[in-house]
Structure formats: structure tokens, C-alpha cells
Amino acid sequence: MATSASPTIRARRLRRELRRLRDQRGLTVDEVARMVGWHRAKVIRIEQGHSGISADGLRKLLDLYEASAEEQGTLTALARQARQKGWWSAYGDVLPDDYVGFEAEAAAISTFQSLYVPGLLQTEEYARAIIHAGRTMADLDEVARVIAARQARKVLLARDVPPRLWIVLDEAAVRRHVGGPKVMAAQVARIVQACQMPAVEVQVLPFSAGAHASMGGAFTILDYAEPALDPTIVYVDNDTNTMLLETGEHVSRYRLAFDHLRAKALDPDQSADFLATVAAELQP
Q1: What distance in Å separates the CA atoms of residue 204 and residue 202, rounded to the nearest whole number?
Q2: Which sign, positive or negative, has the C-alpha torsion 203, 247, 32, 73?
Q3: Which helix (H) or strand (E) holds 234?
Q4: How far apart are CA 199 and CA 157, in angstroms?
Q5: CA count, 13 A, side-chain hemisphere, 137
Q6: Helix 7-25 to helix 69-82 angle, to the nearest 10 degrees?
Q7: Closest CA to 77 of 4, 10, 9
Q8: pLDDT digits over 264-275, tens only?
Q9: Domain 7-84 of CATH type 3.40.50.300
Q10: Residue 214 pLDDT > 60, yes or no?
Q11: CATH class of 89-282
Q12: Cα–Cα distance for residue pair 244/123, rounded to 1 Å
């Protein structure tokens, strides 16, 4: 299955290019707003991704920034692609942030998970148990839609060229009996199976490793095929908040943390053996 362009990534690239052109012209947000007849808040919302931009609005900015014919063609195409709908738009009610759109075009996904198995490797029954625990007031239809969205995400791993997926998994994530021993046995077996996939590496961070570089919780680093156009993003989430971090300082901090976690974890072969042992212990 081929990779398709992500509207979320195209929208991010568009707003970065608009900011670059504004800086290149030496214009402030206030100056741009005055020259095109907008409120300054509109310029800020467009550059920060909180608001889209119409074809007419884009033409006004490109004319103001004196964009070349090539730049105008490129950015007009980006805007058109950004207005398209990704498959995840159909699940907007149960996918509350843009993460899936950013994940969709990643060339490499590096993630540390401290409490549960990452979504791309979850079995349906494990995912159902997680959702029921976290959405105590959800009705059956909502739970079904969350499950469907999570299953749809897994198309990433079926691509002709899948993203490189590197997971560091805290031992707690495989020791906790989510859904009961039977569900957990199937889930751990699924991780063992994933360890055989060429694009997937799994390392277990054992309890014996003690304190580590991400005691604060889980995070994911998303790298792209063209980093000059699409710089790395770090995604940090918990039960009450999600953050997408893009600054070089944040990215360097989390990349260093991930390197430390990999160094403390069991190597991939040892991890596969460890997981196989856990799966066997869960069998009746």
C-alpha cells in the first residue's frame, strides 16, 4: 500500500512557508494585518495553524510577500492539498487532536510508552479494555468508533515502505493485566509477532533498570523523509493534555531521553525473549 500525502502535514508546511516569506520581507504581524486589511489575530491564527486560509487570502499574502511564480505555484498546491480530508476526518469526534494526521506521513516513529502498549500494536480486545477503562460514560457506538479509528491507523504498517517504528516499552505495560490474563496473553503475543517485522524494533525497559530518563511519562518522536521541509515533531500526552512540540530545544531534549531509554532497555533480541516468557506465563 502506497503512502498518501497527509493534509495535516501539508497545512503545517504551508504555514511554515508563509511565516518564512513574511520574515524574508521583514514584515511584522501588525504590518501584514494592516496591509491586507485583516485583524492581527487572523494572521497569527493562520501562522499557528488555528485557522485555515482561503484561496483569495493566500493570493493576498503571496502578492504582499512578493513570492516568485514558483513559490506561488508550490504554496497554492500545498493549500489545495491541505484542504483535502484524511481518512481520520471521519473520526473527528473520537480523535480529539491532530496526532494521527502527523503520524500518517512519518518516515520514523520513536516512542516510549510507560503504562500501555502503543496503539499501532494493540489487539482489538486490549484496545477495547483500555477504552472502557478510560471512557466510563461512553456508549457502545462511541467505543466502536474509537476501536475502528485505532484499527484504521494500523494501515501504516501495511505500506509498501512502512515507517520505521522503534518502541521502548516499560515492563509495567506488559505486566499489567489489561482485560484479564487471556486478553493480555494475546496482546503480548502480538508484540512478539511484531518483533519479527523488518521495520519494527521493540525494547523492554525492565523494572531492574531503576530510574530512567522519562519518569514523567510517555512521548513519541515523529521524523519525516524531508526534514528541511517537515521538521521533527514530539508528541507528549496524558489523560488531561496533549502537546505537539516543534522547537529544536524540545526535540533535542526528547531525542536524548529516547537514546538514554534505549541504552537502559534490553536489546531487541533480549526483549523478544523476555516478551515470549511473559506470554508463556500468561497462558492458563
Answers
A1: 7
A2: negative
A3: strand 233-237
A4: 8
A5: 0
A6: 150
A7: 10
A8: 999 999 999 999
A9: no
A10: yes
A11: alpha beta
A12: 26
